[in-house]
Amino acid sequence: MKNIPKDFLWGASTSAYQVEGAWDADGKGPSVQDVKSGGFIAGLNIKDITDFKVAADHYNHWKEDVALMAEMGFKSYRFSINWTRIYPTGVETTPNEKGIKFYHDLIDELIKNKIEPLVTIHHFDLPNYLEEQGGWNNKELAVEAYVKYATTLFNEYKTKVKYWQTINEQNMVIMFGHLLGKRMTGVDKGEESYQMFHNMNIAQAKAILALRTIDKDAKIGPAPNISLVYPETSKPEDVLAAHNANLIRNWIYIDPFVKGEYDQILLNFWKENNYNIQMTSEEMDLFKKAKIDFIAFNYYSSMTVKAPTKDQDFVVGDQQMGFNLEGMFQSAKNSNLEKTEYGWEVDPIGFRLTARALHDRYNLPIVITENGLGAKDVLTDDGKIHDDYRIDYLRKHIEQIPDIINDGVKLFGYNPWSAIDLVSTHQGISKRYGFVYVNRDEFDLKDMKRYRKDSFYWYKKVISSNGTDLD
Ligand code: BGP
């Protein structure tokens, strides 16, 4: 049995718009997340949940927050840079110096505490100005803006940042864009969704190539949300549907940067549906050169599907609850798995299987950049948070790590969601994930005081024992 390597990157994760707040401070422009208003997401009226304007106020508490991470013994911290702090509309020619400085200070503080920064370039917070110009469907504008932004980050933070992630959950942006403040309304937008998919791929390829000329030692990879897809039964039709779903949900987002091309089944799917995706041979050539160094992936649960039927009776929820694709697959419940109070299936063995499947297909180093349990935590009168349910969830997943490594998967880190409490993408601040409790409610900002949860002390022990003490 192989042990977890000594330099394994134990840490945790956040994203800028969910944790920082200070939404219009120091020259920051509005992102699509800042202007969300009205409507329903995941069955909730977003008027009933907080917006992202103050979030966990990390922008004003970052030093204290890094100190808490250091106290837990973090070896890494996965966070994202807020695009509109650097380029308020996306189209400026010079970056906003105050935004640049904020991340220099944060990164320096992490390095001082021996915490490796794992930086996501773009996590769901497209500049709203770009969105108004067509967003990712405006190929020329969006690609140019992203590459300029990424290049600015590489030049600024080179040598300090060794691990870059291009885009968080590109697959969720394409499939569940309507939940993420984009104009897109998921795969049912068909051609438009896949054009956006291709445009984002070009942007990532160009950024990967730019990094090679700016910082030869830095590593870069995508950060998709990967869930291995199971067939509901052993019926060959269901197995075929699972194969389709694995491809459409997971692999097409990594293939171009490893295999250098799009999968034939995807190309056939476009053809059968008369999707005319604008792509040139020069663009496709980019994928022959723009290779990734590692795969960062977010894992919350597996997914189960069956052969598609005409009525597609599965009701689509949020990003983790499955979806249907006409002619390809239809989501199904997995009766073998328990669910969280937010309806997400819990599948630690699926974590091992997903890691194995990624290894089989790509044979690249892998790092976990999200995994975790959203729950309604309670702060007791004596300032405690007894989140044994979170410990239980994390323990079951961490228990898989030695097996995953023993399977031959090159897993080099585990960064669950989230380092501290932050605002959930869909369910406000009431759905908490952090090791640290942030004292605010949905609409009452209270004092933003930080409290260590039971999971904080537990995770500290997990890290100091390099994953051997999980009690
Ligand atoms: C992932 C996103 C994160 C985070 C997480 C939890 O899809 O990358 O940004 O939001 O899911 O999801 P939620 O906030 O909906 O509970």
TrEMBL record:
Keywords: Glycosidase, Hydrolase. GO terms for biological process: carbohydrate catabolic process. It comes from the Bacteria. SUPFAM superfamilies: (Trans)glycosidases. GO terms for molecular function: beta-glucosidase activity. One of its GO terms (cellular component) is cytosol. Coiled coil: none annotated. The active site is at E370 (nucleophile). PANTHER family: 6-PHOSPHO-BETA-GLUCOSIDASE ASCB-RELATED, GLYCOSYL HYDROLASE. Belongs to the glycosyl hydrolase 1 family. This is 6-phospho-beta-glucosidase.
